[in-house]
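Service request form, structural biology core

Requester: graduate student, group of Dr. S.
Request type: structure prediction, single chain
Budget code: on file
Notes: please return the result as structure tokens.

Sequence provided:
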Amino acid sequence: MAVLPGWLRPLEARARREETPCGNGSLVWRLWGEGQPVVLLHGGSGSWTHWLRNIEPLVASGRQVLVPDMPGFGESALWPAGMDASALPEPIEAGLRALAGDAPCELVGFSFGGMVGGFLAQRYPERVKRLVEVGAPGMGLWAGRNTLNLSPWRHLNDEAARREVNRRNLGILMLHDAVAITEDTISLQLHNVERDRTKARMESRTDALLLALRQLSCPVSAIYGSHDVLYRERMPELRALFESLPTASGFMEVEGAGHWVQYERADAFNVALLSVLGPAQATSSR
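Core staff response, request fulfilled:
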């Protein structure tokens, strides 16, 4: 099994690690900085490392960044009530109560994490001050349903073969520019996908997130890569859906980026995200 790439260890070392209950085990969190809380939820088959290029700019903006490995991913235990997005808000909200008290949080969710974030905001409206959807499916428009031919790799014993398959899969789903698929990126991907214990995540193929977003009271913003394969040739329709939401608060495309936009075009994404969030507000101690 792949280990955390060495170049990530300094960032991890600067985090405060916390654990909150999750089924028969723990939900593992990493926290950086102090100030207004912003929660980052990673994508499917991922972990906190999906946000590795975005954490420090958020800290520098005066925020405390809270990033869990969601249930069944990374170091966190499975959640007995289910593995799909609508099942996961409860243990995440319980963790936030333990770590942030009653403080309303800015919530940024990537892909599968965007779905979890939407359901969390729907179920716990007092928790979410603002929701930012990043590359989220579940909008009823998934153009990749019959075109993403990802290759299996778990049966491969040869490390080089596993890396080559994951290189191809990154290019099919996650990243637009092949230059972005470095050896470090492949190592990071393997470290994440090898620890994914979830199965049958099917809500992404529905309009479940869209239905939840229509019920929210908090501002909802969206940031997508202009080449996100989940919305190939359907980005105008996606924009229209977000702009039709009752609490719509902006739709932004990052040029030259694929699905994993916050990694592939991190500088442009960070500018976009901070413009959406605005200046951090002073927080009182708990």
